Amino acid sequence: MRSTGPVPMSDETHDRDANDTANDTANDTANDGGPTVDDVPVTDQGDTADSEQTTDEQTVEAEVVAEVVETAPEEGTSPDPDEEIEAEEAEEAEAEADAAGEPEPEPEPGVLVTIDGREHRAQPGQLVIDACQAAGSYVPHFCYHPRMTPVGMCRQCLVEVEGPRGTMMVVSCMTPVAEGQVVNTATPTVKRAQEGVLELLLANHPLDCPVCDKGGECPLQDQAFSHGPGESRYLEQKRHYEKPIPISELVYLDRERCILCDRCTRFADEVAGDKLIKFVSRGNDTQVMTFPDEPF
Ligand code: SF4
Ligand code: FES
After folding, report:
1. Is 218 close to ligand 1, i.e. is its CB under 6 Å away?
2. Which atom of ligand 1 is least distant from the CA of 220?
3. Closest CA to 241 of 208, 287, 281
4. Domain boundaries, the chain
5. Structurally, what CATH architecture does the domain formed by 109-238 represent?
């Protein structure tokens, strides 16, 4: 009668089984992407004393397999799609956090103003008259010159500015731009104001352009045509002075044509550096004059 119990393994059989186990494990690792716990060979503790070499090999083998088992995914498992989505969402959130943490892009330099309905970036501190010019809106003027100190003498450069206190008429050569300012240079109100100023400037000016040496190249004549009322309501006698008077060998002064724009006096002071021409008297008698004891 045959025994049905377990057959005791000989040393040779044990070595063969150990080799088979190692081969199987290597094959499993190569074919399946990694061994599982089931693939780890179980050593028979009773046989350890029989062969030191076999025990060493088995120990090394077991360590390698255990390491592989530790780092490899379980057999038959695949990455969880939910986990993948969560990882992607985390990456996106991190990228958004990075973006939010970055400094805001620098605002465009300059002062944003609206001139005649068009947005324009002006230089900080720039005068409204210069900003209008840069934006393509011409503002008539006489006393203003970009290279001399503005004085606001002629009042010809009036424009409308919409501000927190409502719409105001301002002298554009004396008003700096401000953020959000709305400037209008050609409304009916502005046009009426500019015509009124020109009418006053011409009140005492002789209307003799056809015989004037500056006729055809005179800013007053040009702007009387472009921004003037076209006719005068003044019928009274104009102011008269002796004319022309020589103030130097080359310069003659015609005070009847003077509109008191202060350009010649500022030029002498700020550009030539010699204050030899000034305003004298006051009110209706204000006039340009040189100093009696000093040549011009
Ligand atoms: S004389 Fe002088 S102040 Fe008078 S209009 Fe000429 S530049 Fe102006
Ligand atoms: S140009 Fe502005 S007041 Fe003369």
Report:
1. no
2. 5
3. 287
4. 11-69, 109-238, 239-296
5. Roll (3.10)
